[in-house]
Design a protein that fits this description.
- The chain is of the alpha/beta class.
- The chain has one domain: Rossmann fold, CATH 3.40.50.
- About 35% of the residues lie in helices and about 20% in strands.
- It contains seven helices and seven strands, in the order βαβααβαβββααβα.
- The strands form two sheets. It has a five-stranded parallel β-sheet, sandwiched between helices. A two-stranded antiparallel ribbon has the order 4-5.
- Helix 1 runs parallel beside helix 7.
């Protein structure tokens, strides 16, 4: 499977970098064709400018500022997001990437009348997220896990009907230890290693 790993963390030595590397290794070992999109390393600008927003609904014009990013998501049969959960949701960099890249006529068609939007990412048959959270799992549940809902519900609705989903979170990251981090990486490696 062609899998795009979308990585969003500004600190090169962060635990999220170890998560990214573990995911890449497990996927490649599983025989997948993997590409990495490191949003910070490539200097992606998450800010949508005024003209870009004016052109948001206009086919082709809305693709021009992010055509290279669109080519990546159109190449992918699977998407794996690796990011830290900040304020219960996606980092601004990743949210800005979704705002700017997942545009109408590419990822979904605009509704007509009372019809719902129509998904255009039906080539994507795997969608996953691996994140770190400062909060414990129970508090994340109380808050509603906005990041998880954005990816596994919002983006999932635009993918193939039988798209498989994957979610793994390291909770209480602020109190993590070498033992908990190693256990998490081992769990990630095993779960991705079983993916076909």
């Amino acid at each position: 499977m062609r899998i795009l790993v979308v990585y969003s963390h500004p600190v090169p030595e962060s635990f999220n970098a170890a998560v990214r590397d573990t995911a890449l290794e497990a996927l490649r070992r599983g025989g997948h064709d993997v590409k990495l999109l490191d949003l910070y390393a490539e200097g992606f600008d998450p800010v949508m400018q005024a003209q870009e927003r004016r052109d948001y609904h206009t086919q082709d014009l809305n693709e021009d500022p992010v055509r290279d990013q669109i080519a990546l998501i159109q190449w992918a049969e699977g998407l794996l997001f690796v990011y830290p959960t900040w304020w219960y949701g996606l980092p601004a960099m990743l949210k800005g990437w979704l705002d700017r890249v997942w545009v109408p006529h590419v990822t979904f068609s605009m509704p007509e009348g009372n019809q719902p939007i129509r998904p255009l990412m039906t080539h994507v048959r795997f969608l996953g997220a691996v994140t770190t959270c400062g909060a414990p799992w129970w508090w994340s549940k109380v808050v509603g896990e906005p990041g998880r809902r954005t990816i596994l519900r919002g983006i999932r609705a635009l993918c193939a009907k039988r798209c498989r989903t994957f979610w793994l979170a390291h909770y209480k990251m602020d109190a993590s230890t070498d033992v908990t981090r190693k256990a998490f990486l081992s769990q990630l490696q095993k779960k991705l290693g079983r993916m076909r």
